[in-house]
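About this split. The held-out portion is used to measure sequence recovery: a designer receives only the structure tokens and must propose an amino acid at every position. Recovery is the fraction of positions where the proposal matches the reference. Here is one held-out target exactly as it appears in the evaluation file.
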């Protein structure tokens, strides 16, 4: 008689399902966040669509509702602690809880050598790309501890584990996101809360396309950094984030998952 260590096959088809879950997605008005919000809603989650851009919030919410999903928009600045709290309050008052969070809002660097970087630019980068994640973790984990568990994914970057020229503020902030993820994963694993990071390579979103500009030489240089020979698409990050947020990843915490076409192998 076979030991009962092999799960029923249908588990493979149900563990990605997010029906009955409530998820907050930050930076959900564009790019990776928008696509992840749409994907999670398609898998059954009720989604809080959080972004500083009202137009972005509206567009993502409309798309989810058109597809038959549940979404509620909130225009927030994730560097503001009361705004962060408001996203959780909205999840609880609208849908009755919070099970999953994708902390993804972020900005690109203006780009400058360290020796010329104005302090204000450094501080703004740290505030948007790192302190916002601290604030999200603080309030989401408080709620999830009381609720008995949850799953969180933070968006770092390949630049969270390797250096990149001329964007020292971005590299430092994203390394910080990986550190926050690992430390929080250790501290709250005992509360049933999993905390992971996803590390995108170059993904074709407004952030990257505006940083590259229209110069084909710059674009080819960026592509060459990816052994897979192309840039990524938002959906390729959304799939990883959705997996990490689902029960399919129930033994995964503290990971910094590269989804980068091999960028960080180089
Ligand atoms: N695109 C890439 O190549 C790439 C690579 C590695 C990591 N990332 C990271 O992925 C995340 C998403 O980026 P994207 O490429 O989808 O960019 P994007 O510009 O398309 O989307 C970012 C979203 O975040 C929102 N946002 C910015 N500041 C905010 C704030 N203070 N409060 C709330 N919302 C705010 C913006 O309004 C925008 O809708 C970022 O954290 C970025 O650093 C992107």
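Reference sequence for scoring:
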């Amino acid at each position: 008689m076979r030991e009962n260590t092999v799960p029923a096959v249908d588990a493979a088809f149900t563990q990605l399902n997010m029906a009955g879950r409530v998820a907050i997605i930050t930076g959900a008005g564009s790019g990776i966040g928008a696509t992840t919000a749409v994907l999670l809603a398609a898998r059954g989650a009720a989604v809080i669509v959080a972004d500083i851009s009202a137009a972005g919030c509206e567009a993502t919410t409309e798309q989810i509702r058109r597809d038959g999903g549940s979404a509620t928009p909130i225009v927030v600045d994730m560097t503001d602690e009361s705004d962060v709290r408001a996203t959780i309050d909205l999840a609880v008052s609208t849908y009755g809880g919070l099970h999953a969070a994708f902390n993804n809002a972020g900005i690109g660097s203006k780009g400058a050598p360290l020796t010329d970087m104005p302090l204000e630019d450094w501080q703004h980068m740290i505030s948007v790309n790192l302190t916002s994640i601290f604030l999200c973790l603080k309030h989401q984990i408080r709620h999830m501890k009381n609720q008995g568990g949850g799953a969180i994914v933070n968006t770092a970057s390949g630049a969270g584990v390797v250096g990149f020229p001329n964007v020292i503020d971005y590299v430092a902030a994203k390394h910080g996101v990986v550190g926050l993820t690992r430390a929080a994963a250790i501290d709250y694993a005992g509360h049933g809360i999993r905390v992971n990071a996803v590390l995108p390579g170059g993904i074709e979103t407004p952030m990257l396309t505006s940083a590259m500009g229209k110069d084909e030489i710059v674009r080819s240089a960026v592509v060459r950094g990816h052994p897979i020979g192309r840039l990524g698409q938002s959906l390729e990050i959304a799939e990883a984030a959705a997996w990490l947020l689902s029960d399919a990843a129930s033994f995964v915490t503290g990971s910094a998952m590269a989804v980068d076409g091999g960028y960080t192998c180089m």
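Annotator remark: The chain has one domain: 19-259.
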